[in-house]
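Q: Hand in one record:
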Amino acid sequence: MPSMSSTQQTAGRRRRAGSARPGLVAGIAVSALVLAACGGTTGEESGGSSSSADDGTISVFGAFATPLEEPWDGAIHAALTAAADDGEIEYQHVDDLGTADEMERALRDIIATEDPDVIIGDAFAAEEAVREVAAEFPDTAFAFGSGGAEQAPNFSVFDNWLQDPAYLAGMLAGGLTKTGTIGVVGAMPIPEVNRIVNAFTAGAQEQNPAARVTVSFINSFFDPATAKQAAEAAIAGGADVLFAERDGVIAAAEENKLPVFGMMVDQQEQAPEYVVSSLIWDMRPTVDAVVGAVADGSYQASNLAEYSFMKNKGSSLAPINTGTAFPIPAELTAKVEERQAAILDGSVVTPVDENEPAGSTTVGE
C-alpha cells in the first residue's frame, strides 16, 4: 500500500456526499436469513454467484448501511459491479442495513452461508459491531468505510478523499465569480466534509485572492429543501457561484441562472446549462488494491485513503461543461488543466485541512 502522512491516515468520522442516484440495486435473493433479519435488498451481480468461485476468482460481498440510491455506498457498489462485469470478482450484496444489529446479523449470516473472501461496505453507523465480527473471522478480509484506524489483522479502512478535484473546482469558481462571492452548502463541519470545502476555498482564493467564500452547513446528510434554502440565502448575500456539496443546491443555481459545481457523480444532467463540473469519487482503485492483495496472499489491515487520491485515479474532476449558458474563459480552463497535470504527476500535493472552515455557519443555529 502507498505510504501516507499522519494527517492522511486520519479517516473521516462520518460521511454522506452528493445527491441520490437511482438504478443501482440488484434484485436476486441470495440469503433468506439476511432478508428476514435485516429487511435489506440482496443481489447477485453479473460476475456470478456464491462465495469462492471454483476457478479461483475472488468472491466479494457488499454490506451497505443505506439503500444504494444514496451515492456514497452507491459509488462502492458501482465499482464492485464493474469489477464483476470485468470478470475479476464474484459479487453479491445486501443494502439498507440501517442499524448496528442489522449489520451484525447480516455479516454473520453472509459468512455462515456464503463464506466470501472479502466483505466491503460501510461501518460508520455500526463501527463496534463490524469490528467485533471482523475480529472473530480473521481469515475473511474486511474493507469498510470507517471513522477509525485499521484493525489488525484483517480490517482495512477507507473514506472518500476528494480534496484534489475540490481544489480544481475552486479554481474554476474563483475565475467565474463576478461579485467576488462564492457560496458553499455542506452537510456538517466534520473532517471529511471540511477537507473538501477547505480545498475548494483554497483553489478559489488561489485563482482570485479577493474572493469571499461563504460556507453554510445544513446539519444533515440529505435534506434538499434545507440545502436549497441555504443556497438561496447565499445568493441573497451576493454569491454568484455555488458549490453543491449537498443535494438541493443545483436546483437553486438553475433557478437563479448561476454557475454551480456538483458532488460525487457528474451532475451535469441536473442542470445542463449551469453545472460547470463535479467532483467524482471512483472506488475502483480501492477495490482493485484489496482484491489484488487477497489474490496474491499479501492482504493485511491497511488505511486505503490514498487510493481515493486523483494521482491514483480514485477521484477526478468531471469534464468541464462546454455547453453552459455563460462563457468559461479558455485561459481559466488551461490553468486548471495545468494544475491537474501537476497533481497527477505528483509535483503538487493538495493541502489537507480538516478544520472547520473559518466563518462557517450552521442552518438553524
About this structure: The first strand starts at residue 41 and ends at 44.
